[in-house]
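Ticket #4471: structure export looks truncated?
Reporter: QA, pipeline team
Priority: medium

Steps to reproduce: submit the single chain below to the structure queue and open the exported record.
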Amino acid sequence: MAETTKYTLAVGRRKTATARVKLTPAAKTTVTVNGKSGEEYFNTKERRAIPLDPLRLDEVDGTFTIEAKVQGGGITAQAEAVRMGVARALTLAKDTLRKPLKAAGYLKRDPRAVERKKPGLRKARKRPQWSKR
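Actual output as written to the record:
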């Protein structure tokens, strides 16, 4: 009889980026984003570290395979969306992790987004130069 692997699904968002994350217990932690490895998709060291932040907490034990499908936004926003998805998946997998993940700020949706352009202005707030004469 085939043994089924248990996994957890969660969604993370940041600005206009959305990440659907599948978290599976594994022997070694690996990250796959849109079919590419995490090292290939997130090209800088800092961006590669962002999705793994929730796993670095002292209360989290074990290693996981992280598979994410990401769309929208930029690379950094996508990395932060994956981080939120991983944190949400961890809370679904183990209820006791909610408090430390929330204290670290990984479960809070960052509300900041680009402000819309207003009519009569050059950008959201930049006004045309005023001239006296």
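Status: closed, not a bug. The export was complete when the record was re-opened. Leaving a note from the reviewer for reference: Residues 75-93 form the longest helix (19 residues).
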